[in-house]
Each structure stands twice: as structure tokens, then as C-alpha cells.
């Protein structure tokens, strides 16, 4: 098992008992924030108003239901995949994140079978084109939500990611001896 897979497995174990309400409240706030900051993306989604997208992070056991409305987008986290949807996209959390941020090509991920897609492909292409139309950096978008505390939150997030990476590398997060690597 690679360090990344071990980290995702640990994240899944940590997330599974937690209630989704705080995450869903954050997603409502974040969706509104993105709608205000990137109105061109929302306008590009008008042809798919009323469509429902189910995006499943297979390694986290978590799905996100994205619904397009007139001038808005809403996102809700759910723990099940059996939700009515016009489009279904499945893949690892990191593949989906990189796809969303435009760091990886969706076609390459699809043909390498890192993601799977089913349903209304025209709606999916409209979503993809809308997201590709603007450079959206999720980390900076999240940090800006904290207003005057954005700098502090950014530093704390950077430190947390660094600590997480060190724990994965040393094995402390898994009860391993120092220097013993995860997956050996």
C-alpha cells in the first residue's frame, strides 16, 4: 500500500463515524461563495439547470450530490451511491480533486480507468467546459472564506498537510516504529 493510499484509508476511518451536517453546512456556504466569485461558471451551467450530478470518491466512501439551479449550484455530501442522478462520476478522491482543479485531463483519467462516468454525457461536458473556463484554486477559495484570518488559516493548513505527510512517512499515524514505512 502506498503512503497516499494509506493516508486516504486513515482519512476514511476518521471520517466514517462523523456526522455529515457540519460538512454539508460548509458545502452550502462554499457553494454560495463560489457562485458569487465565479458567476461566469454558473452562467455556463444554465443549459444543464435541473441536472443532478453524483460524484463518488470511492476511496473515502463519500459521495457528493451537485444540483444545478437557476443561477446557483448546490453540493451535498452523502454516504451512499444509490441516489437518483443524471450523471455519475466515480474515482479516487485525489483523481477527482485533480480533475476539478484542472490538474489532470478528464479524458486521460477516463481512458486509464481512474474514473468512471455514466449518464448524460452532454451535461457532463457542459460541467467540464464550465469548470475549465475559469482557473479555480480550491485551496485559495476555501482560505478566502476566513476573511481577516485567511493568512492564519493558510499557514495552519500548510502545517497540517506537512504534519500529515510526515506522519504517513514515519508511520506514527499507524502505530509503526519510527522509520518503519507504511505498507511494508
Report the helical percentage. 40-55%
Rounded to an integer in angstroms, the radius of gyration calculated over CA atoms is: 18 Å
Which second-level CATH architecture of the largest domain applies?
Answer: 2-Layer Sandwich
Whole-number average pLDDT?
81
Domain SCP2: 35-132
Pfam families: SCP2
Protein name: SCP2 sterol-binding domain-containing protein
InterPro entries: SCP2_sterol-bd_dom, SCP2_sterol-bd_dom_sf
Short descriptors:
single chain; alpha+beta; Nonspecific Lipid-transfer Protein, Chain A; 2 domains; five-stranded mixed beta sheet; 8 helices; 49% helix; 17% strand; SCP2_sterol-bd_dom; SCP2 sterol-binding domain-containing protein; SCP2_sterol-bd_dom_sf
